[in-house]
């Protein structure tokens, strides 16, 4: 090939530089922990203000059958994922899929808040002011997410809380 081009016809190759930027992972974990804390606190406070008897019954259901709640949560998440996938590939169902995901997120946040409230109730015996156990539960959620690996535990607790909400809705 060099003979066809000539001995001196080798063209220089331009090297391109690669710019690699590493972001601070602490900021992402800290932001996730603050978001988990505030989401649990806000959704829990709204649920307590709007339907305190529902929160109490769902928290009792969560505590009484933790494994069942977790299984309902997993099945609920799989059902939402499958339904969303089918709606999105139909193209016509994209708005319905968006609405389904939004409703599932709200139910997840409420269920997770109820689950962490139930955990806070076990640690703090203050039945007069329910916001104290809720704040303790929200702090636990934020601390679990802050540790990184504990985020998986927080996810499982959230799934069980979501399952308790789904179970109460199906019954």
Counted beta strands? 0
State which percent range the strand residues make up.
Answer: under 5%
State the domain count.
Answer: 1
Described by the principal axes of the CA atoms, the overall outline is: extended
Q: Summarize the amount of helix as a percent range.
A: over 70%
Radius of gyration: 24 Å
| Spans of at least 5 consecutive residues with low confidence | none
Tally of helical runs: 7
Domain DUF8173: 9-168
Organism: Natronoarchaeum mannanilyticum
Pfam family, one: DUF8173
InterPro entries: DUF8173 (IPR058486)
Please tell me about this protein's structure.
The protein is mostly helical and 171 residues long. The protein has one domain (26-170). Helix content is 79%, strand content 0%. The protein has seven helices and no strands. It has helices at residues 2-5, 25-50, 52-64, 66-89, 94-123, 131-147, 150-170. Helix 5 (94-123) crosses helix 6. It is extended and about 85 Å long. The relative contact order is 0.17. This is DUF8173 domain-containing protein. It holds the Pfam family DUF8173. The chain crosses the membrane at residues 26-50, 70-92, 98-119, 131-164.
What secondary-structure arrangement, pairings included, does this model have?
Layout: H1 2-5, H2 25-50, H3 52-64, H4 66-89, H5 94-123, H6 131-147, H7 150-170
Task: Give me some keywords for this one.
single chain; 171 residues; mainly alpha; 7 helices; transmembrane; membrane
């Amino acid at each position: 090939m060099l003979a066809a081009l000539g001995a001196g016809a080798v063209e220089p190759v331009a090297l391109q530089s690669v710019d690699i930027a590493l972001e601070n992972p602490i900021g992402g974990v800290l932001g996730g922990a603050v978001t988990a804390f505030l989401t649990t606190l806000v959704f829990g406070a709204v649920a307590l203000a709007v339907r305190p008897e529902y929160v109490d019954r769902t928290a009792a259901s969560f505590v009484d059958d933790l494994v069942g709640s977790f299984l309902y949560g997993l099945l609920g998440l799989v059902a939402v994922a499958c339904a969303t996938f089918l709606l999105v590939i139909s193209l016509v169902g994209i708005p319905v899929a968006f609405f389904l995901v939004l409703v599932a997120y709200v139910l997840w946040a409420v269920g997770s808040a109820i689950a962490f409230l139930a955990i806070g109730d076990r640690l703090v015996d203050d039945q007069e002011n329910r916001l104290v156990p809720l704040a303790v539960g929200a702090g636990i959620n934020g601390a679990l997410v802050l540790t990184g690996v504990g985020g998986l535990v927080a996810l499982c607790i959230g799934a069980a809380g979501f399952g308790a909400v789904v179970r109460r809705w199906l019954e």
